[in-house]
User: What shape does this take?
Amino acid sequence: MRQIQGEIEQITVWQKEQEKELSEVKEKAEELEEVFAKEEPEMLKRISQLSDLLPHYANVRKYSKEYENQTGAMQRCIQNCQEASARYEEDMRNSFRSRRESWQRNYRKARRVRSADQ
Assistant: This one.
């Protein structure tokens, strides 16, 4: 009997502790509900704003990738143009050199012919 009464007392103490803890948890929950109630409209507004930005962000990523692709294509184009320009300049130098040499040969021949005629 004493053992049962001791167990009942222990259960009673435990029950009071649980009731106290439950009361504290309820108070904390109510405080958090109040805070959440105050913050909820602003949070919903921010969520809405962020949701509105998502399509724009997707476009930014898309256009950023397109910019990278176009930049690469432009760099290849510039490289090709520079190489073609260098080849053209070399061809022009060779052409002018060849013409100069040809004119020089013709001039020497003409001088020899004139010298021979005189």
